[in-house]
Amino acid sequence: QVQLKESGGGSVQAGGSLRLSCAASGRFFNIPTMGWYRQAPGKQREFVALISGGVNTNYTDSVKGRFTISKDNAKDTVYLQMDSLKPEDTAVYYCHAVVRGGANLNNIWGQGTPVTVSK
User: Fold this and answer.
1) How far apart are CA 27 and CA 54, in angstroms?
2) CA nearest to 61, candidates 74, 50, 48
3) How distant is the alpha carbon of residue 97 from its chain centre?
4) How far apart are the C-alpha atoms of 56 and 69, rounded to whole Å?
5) Element (H, E) at 118
6) pLDDT tens digits, 42-84
7) Minimal CA–CA distance to 23: which of 73, 70, 78?
8) In sequence order, what are the residues at sequence separation of 6 or more whose Cβ sits closer than 8 angstroms to the Cβ of residue 27?
9) Ramachandran angles phi, psi of 63, nearest 5°
10) How far apart are CA 25 and CA 103, in angstroms?
């Protein structure tokens, strides 16, 4: 069974930075895509960023130029560098992975890590 373990969340003042990490463990063939979603209080979970093939990235408009996603393929770990944080970035951040196990692709979610940005 594949598991995702997130770390790096916390509290920071506006303008500050945080770096989230998400490490995959378990049995799988490879992980074509990893990414981050977030859910603010009272809102639906939304897409933040993803990386596929280890190099192709995509971001939601509100974080472009401030967040950077990267992946260490050797460690099956994805990172989200978050700079110039704003109070509206406050949310629980969830790691997501599309994991290939044999002939199947499975969607796996982490347990979430909270990020709080104060004014």
Assistant:
1) 19
2) 48
3) 9
4) 10
5) strand 113-118
6) 999 999 999 998 789 999 999 999 999 999 999 999 999 999 9
7) 78
8) 1, 2, 101
9) -115, -5
10) 19
